[in-house]
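Deliverable D2.4 — example input (structure tokens):
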């Protein structure tokens, strides 16, 4: 399923053990090498002075409308606990705000948001705000990750200007069934049938 990255800021983290919310996301940890969200910084009453303040996306059991579901707060880590996460956080990389240019140097605008595949946590598309003159006709441009050539601390280089792409929920995401009982799903009710149904009319 594709979601807009900004929608996941302040997003609830739900615990199967507690049966409710235990934290909220405060920001993504994005690896610039593969443009993948590898974790989220967290806030909440259980987070003290940054201790246990990171959620590795590998610990997410399911992504649901009500929040990201994990087993328990034991899944929360410190950044130094995982070398990969500590290394990426040390880069202080911020995707939103980066300038977007073509290989020929044409300025396309700045990244204002992105779409995320919740199955892989890969950044799927960049949402780019156009420069002032071009924004009069088309204020935003959506660029697929396949068009990205290079990413650094200041800019994203793409092959060429890409037309806006409509974001649709995948069929697989709609039909997804978790391999565990999810207490956060809305209960599905079916009509109550009589214990002693009337015999069929034989006449």
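Example output (designed residues):
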């Amino acid at each position: 399923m594709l979601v807009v990255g900004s929608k996941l800021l302040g997003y609830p983290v739900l615990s199967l053990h507690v049966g409710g919310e235990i934290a909220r996301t405060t920001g993504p940890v994005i690896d610039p090498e593969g443009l993948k969200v590898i974790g989220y910084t967290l806030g909440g009453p259980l987070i003290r002075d940054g201790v246990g303040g990171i959620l590795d996306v590998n610990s997410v059991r399911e992504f649901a409308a009500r929040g990201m579901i994990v087993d328990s707060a034991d899944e929360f880590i410190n950044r130094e606990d995982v070398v990969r996460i500590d290394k990426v956080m040390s880069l202080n990389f911020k995707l939103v705000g980066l300038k977007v240019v073509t290989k020929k140097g044409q300025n396309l605008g700045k990244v204002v948001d992105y779409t995320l595949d919740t199955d892989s946590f890969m950044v799927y598309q960049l949402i780019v705000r156009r420069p002032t003159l071009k924004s009069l006709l088309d204020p935003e441009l959506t660029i697929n990750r396949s068009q990205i050539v290079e990413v650094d601390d200041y800019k994203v280089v793409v092959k060429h200007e890409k037309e806006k792409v409509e974001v649709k929920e995948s069929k697989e995401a709609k039909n997804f069934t978790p391999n565990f009982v999810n207490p956060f799903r809305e209960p599905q009710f079916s009509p109550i049938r009589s214990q002693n149904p009337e015999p069929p009319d034989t006449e």
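The chain has two domains: 2-93, 99-158.
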